[in-house]
Design a protein that fits this description.
Layout (H helix, E strand, L loop, with lengths): L2 H13 L7 H33 L9 H23 L9 H23 L4
Helix pairs in contact: 2-3, 2-4, 3-4
Amino acid sequence: MSAETLEEKESPQKESGPKKLTPQEKQKEQHERIQRTVIACVMGIVTGIISYLVVGTEYIAGFNSYTFLGLLIMFAGIVVQRHIFMLMKMNTSRLGKKDWLYQGFMTFAFWFIIWTFLLSGSI
């Protein structure tokens, strides 16, 4: 093989690599990531408060059907996030499993902290 043939075969691979983003596109992506994180945190707080209001302290004594109800409320908050993203006209098709796992974890963490804080009666 000649050197020209080898270079011709390598050049299409270089063009198909990841696209370079402009500073404006990078800033827009960063802004969308921040918005998604804030939405996940707010949904965690809201679902924690709803779980406290629906279940209350008198029914919590270990893992029972009422704690399962609190978990379902939290999972509903994760599902609602996708609809919020669509209402805000965010492109959800680019979000992979890792992104949705992050969204779910942030919602779970805030839900757990808020619900535990409210159930402890420290307010």
